[in-house]
From TrEMBL:
GO terms for cellular component: cytosol. It comes from Frankia canadensis. Keywords: Oxidoreductase. This is Putative pyridoxine/pyridoxamine 5'-phosphate oxidase. One of its GO terms (molecular function) is oxidoreductase activity, acting on the CH-CH group of donors. PANTHER family: F420H(2)-DEPENDENT REDUCTASE RV1155, HEME OXYGENASE HI_0854-RELATED. Transmembrane segments: none annotated. The keyword Oxidoreductase applies. Signal peptide: none annotated. Its EC number is 1.4.3.5. Residues 11-138 form the Pyridoxamine 5'-phosphate oxidase N-terminal domain. It holds the Pfam family PNPOx_N.
């Protein structure tokens, strides 16, 4: 039986593993496992990735994205649909692109033990921040 009291926002906020769907140039979906952070107050989902990844190339061409997360029991799921904006990669460890990744890390995981090292790795790895604006949220749980 599908529960009517299920709130997909709660599952999204608790989930740190999901599947991001982007659109390939031929129209087929491209699926990537990601570690999302859902900021319900801001109405966005944040994901760190690298320049050159398929999802990054797809989103630069077509910003439509869908994220699905599944509850730990496998009996509940939540989906977010929206448009993604990409920030980065940055070349300056103290530049705005890297600062966006620092802000993401702080929101998702708290303080890093060595911010200088983190910033250097964000530049050397050519990290990109995906900010997906939440247009639609839905989901269900089987009770």
């Amino acid at each position: 039986m599908i529960s009517t009291s299920f709130d997909p926002h709660v599952l999204l906020a608790a989930s740190r593993l999901g599947v991001l769907a982007t659109i390939r140039s031929d129209g087929r979906p491209q699926l990537s496992p990601v570690m999302p952070f859902y900021d319900q107050r801001a109405g966005v989902v944040l994901v760190s990735t690298i320049q050159g990844a398929a999802k990054t190339a797809n989103l630069r061409r077509d910003p439509r994205a869908t994220l699905e997360v599944t509850g730990p029991d496998g009996m509940s799921w939540a989906t977010v649909e929206g448009l993604a904006k990409l920030t980065g990669p940055g070349r300056d460890p103290n530049g705005p692109e890297v600062q966006a990744l620092v802000d993401y890390y702080r929101a998702a995981a708290g303080e890093h033990p060595d911010w200088d090292e983190y910033r250097a790795v964000m530049v050397s790895d050519r990290r990109v921040l995906i900010t997906m604006t939440v247009d639609h949220v839905y989901g269900a749980t089987i009770a």
